[in-house]
Specification:
two-stranded antiparallel ribbon, 10 helices, 5% strand
């Protein structure tokens, strides 16, 4: 999936960093079911990990994403709103947690303990997102759909095929929504909406066209699926596990247990 970044000329096309990238490496060849289990284990370990483990995981994750062709600049641009949210989490924690005051802002006190706790929480949340990004980059949507169906099949009453289809469509639509959001921002900028002082006016004229285009795209997709007689009873992607998959899973589980135990 390609996208045009907001504010760039119309001819500049870039690949969305949060989308599947073709590759032949070990991560691409790993069974999607094992990737899900490893992601869950690593995410649980991140929640309990200390600063040292987080630093090691973050360095390894950034190096891995760079190796997969996801540049730091493009990833930062794609996750800029998440970074703003994490900054707010850090500030709220720093200003509300009691402790040694670094400075005061009116009646609020910025504490050293709160800053450390807020940075730790923000780092954990960001690392979980990066782990999920690695899964999306190295796994085809069809494999993710098949893995979700495989995990849900043992549960009676759950439409595993339909839920898997929803996951697959979601992975395909997120980059498309990014493209539409960037195009809507460019269109509003060309009309001088950003020159308006009222933020509610700017947000309204950005949100309404974006939502309208998103719902229209969803309607066209549903009509296309109905026209092609789509049903839940269809042959999906076949998942096969090898000895290497089991070995990687064992290493991931052992590492997760080690982090949780320390």
């Amino acid at each position: 999936m390609h996208m045009r970044v907001a504010g760039e000329p119309a001819g500049v096309i870039r690949m969305s960093p949060i989308s599947y990238r073709l590759g032949t490496g070990a991560l691409h060849a790993l069974d999607a079911r094992f990737k899900f289990v490893i992601l869950i284990v690593l995410s649980l370990s991140v929640v309990k990990a200390g600063a040292l483990h987080l630093a090691l995981l973050a360095c390894g994750q950034i190096a891995l994403l760079s190796f997969l062709g996801c540049s730091f600049k493009s990833l930062t641009t794609e996750l800029r709103y998440l970074l703003v949210l994490l900054l707010l989490v850090f500030l709220v924690r720093a200003f509300t947690m009691p402790g040694e005051a670094v400075f005061r802002l009116y009646w609020l006190s910025f504490s050293r303990q709160g800053a450390a706790a807020g940075a730790l929480i923000a780092a954990r949340m960001l690392l979980v997102v990066l782990l999920g990004t690695t899964l999306v980059i190295t796994t085809r949507p069809a494999e993710i759909k098949a893995a979700v169906e495989w995990f849900l099949k043992p549960f009676p009453g759950l439409p595993a095929a339909r839920i898997g289809t929803m996951f697959g469509l979601l992975l395909r639509l997120i980059p498309l929504l990014s493209v539409q959001f960037a195009e809507t921002m460019d269109a509003q900028r060309a009309r001088g909406v950003e020159n308006r002082i009222n933020p509610v006016y700017r947000l309204t004229w950005l949100a309404i066209p974006f939502l309208r285009r998103s719902f229209s795209a969803a309607d066209r997709l549903s009509i296309a699926m109905e026209a092609r007689c789509y049903t839940d009873d269809r042959t999906g992607h076949r998942l096969t596990a090898t000895r290497r998959d089991w070995l990687v899973l064992a290493v991931g589980i052992v590492y997760g247990i080690f982090v949780l135990a320390t």
